[in-house]
Amino acid sequence: MALMRSAVIGSLAHLPNVDISLGGAESNLAIGLRRLGVPAAWISRVGDDPLGQRVVREIRAEGVEVHCGIDPQRPTGLMVKSRPSAATTRVDYYRAGSAATALEPSHLPEELIEQAEILHISGITSLLSASAHATVVTAARRAAAAGVQVSLDVNYRSRLGSRERLAQLLGEILEHTDILFGGPEELSLLAPDAEESAPHTPPARPRLGGPPGGRQARSRRRRRPLGRPAP
Questions:
Q1: Rg (CA), the chain
Q2: CA-CA distance, 177 to 53, in Å (whole number)?
Q3: I want to staple 179 with a disulfide (CB 3.0 to 4.6 A). Which of 105, 124, 217, 226 is the partner?
């Protein structure tokens, strides 16, 4: 996903310019893993446009293994972030009809998920479209069938859909989830008692993380991590 943001305080209606960069928790995770020396792959879909070219180029330049289809009919997803005041941040999504909304199970590479150590997915993808959600479910099922751990970041964004809708969608993935990320409010969507989980208690499936102020989870290392984004 392409990201436009302004470091200057003020409304976008009046700011003279914005900076273009790369955005998305999933791509950020893949890049972070590579900077730590951990192999990572990223699966997504972008438009046949300059923003899509930039997203792919910058992620690939970080050493991430990129599996990204080019959609000639749809644009690359865009997020615009601004600071109307010193105490507030505004985020506007331009994802309706984007290339990522057309993700479908057939876009998942053969054998890549099965060869991974961890499949990481996000609640954002499921809220993009029915086909994108079906892709996430298929990826999780393939991972579970191959004995690959599934990591799920709730990552709720209210502008993309309701809490109830996200809870319904992620409920279809939970049975395959080994590691669950989220803050207390996000985890309460799926597990009301998540805040009471003891971090040093042997976890049941799925493992819950999310103390106030951050996210937390643990896993065993077997093969290679695999990032699964929602641009």
A1: 17
A2: 32
A3: 217
Q: For residue 224, is pLDDT > 70?
A: no
SS3 label, residue 60: helix
Whether residue 46 contacts residue 23, with contact meaning beta carbons closer than 8 Å, is answered with no
Burial class of 127 by CB neighbour count within 10 A (0 to 12, 13 to 18, 19+): buried
Q: Which residue has the tokens 């150590």?
A: 117
Q: What is the pLDDT of residue 228?
A: 53
- As a whole number of angstroms, the distance between CA 129 and CA 104 comes to 10
Structure tokens at 128: 């993009």
Token pair listed for 194: 């998540």
- Residue 142, pLDDT > 90, answer yes
pLDDT given at position 226: 57
Q: In the chain, where do the E strands start and end?
A: 2-9, 19-22, 41-47, 65-71, 78-85, 88-94, 116-122, 149-153, 179-181, 207-208, 224-227
Q: How far is CA 122 from CA 5, 73, 86, 88, 205, in A?
A: 22, 25, 29, 25, 18
Note the pLDDT of residue 225: 52
pTM, two decimals, is 0.80
Express each pLDDT in 187-219 by its tens digit: 888 865 544 443 433 344 455 444 334 444 434
Q: SS3 for 141?
A: helix
